[in-house]
Amino acid sequence: MRKLLQCALIAALSLGAVNQLQAQLQQGKRGADHFRIGVAGYSYRNFTLDQTLSYLQSMGVKYLSVKDFWLPLDATEEEMAAFKAKCAEYGVEGYILGPIYMKSKAEVDRAFAYAGRYGAEVFIGVPNYELLDYTIQKVKETGIKMAIHTHGPDGAPFPNIQTVVDKVKDPTLGVGCCMDLGHSVRMGEDIVKDIKRYKEWIYDIHIKDETEASKNGNTCEMGRGVMDFKPIIKVLRKIDYQGVISLEFEKDGHDPHAGIAESIGYLRGVCDTLE
Questions:
Q1: Is 151 helix (H, G, I), strand (E, B) or coil?
Q2: Would you report the helix, strand and coil content of the chain in percent, each value rounded to 5?
Q3: How do residues 49-64 score in pLDDT, each as one tens digit?
Q4: Which tens digits make up the pLDDT trace of 128-159?
Q5: Which helix (H) or strand (E) holds 185?
Q6: Long-range contacts (CB closer than 8 Å, 24 or more residues apart) made by 70-73
Q7: Each residue of 83-108: pLDDT tens digit?
Q8: Handedness of CA 72, 74, 117, 140 (dihedral sign)
């Protein structure tokens, strides 16, 4: 009887471990890691939504950052519901909208109305500097937060997270950062230090590898460039980052999938092998 009970206990524990692993995979988690891995929509900018979702499904990626070439800024609630249903057919969640660029108050209003119809709690935006006060006002009015996307040394507003902090000043205002790590390395910055220093500002992350740690750097398959992702993953664990890490693959716009799949596999490998 005792041996039978021991066998039953082992079987139950094994079943529990399997169920836990299945639950993690269903949530986009892998192994002991708690990160949700996604893809930024710009990576598939030359593909239809169905093609993109099929690619994501083939990789087991469950999170998509939604661009307006699939879901226009004037989309109705009915069109948004149909969009979400289409994503769900492939086991994918359109977890965030943007980046949305805003050069006037009318465009700020349109962006927040768009996010509101979608039911978003946060979206990725890039307002002109002079619109920041108005944007903060809209956050307060709507309760919808905004993550400012960083764009590196190419002349766009908000080149890095330090600029977001310097311009917004207060992390409790609901305006944070979508930190693009590839652009950070192109700025010559210490990514690990910035993540630790500005952890309360980081709402979303775009990840990629770069050929050079300079303005001349270009996106390449993860693991082939200059970035060391192990300390980045370690520090994200240390700060208990709860958001999605989305690959943004700017290379090979008309045929990106092989590079995206390689990069997703590499990122998962880094996450799974680190203790």
A1: coil
A2: 50, 15, 30
A3: 999 999 999 999 999 9
A4: 999 999 999 999 999 999 999 999 999 889 99
A5: helix 181-186
A6: 70/41, 71/97, 71/118, 73/100, 73/110, 73/111, 73/114
A7: 999 999 999 999 999 999 999 999 99
A8: positive
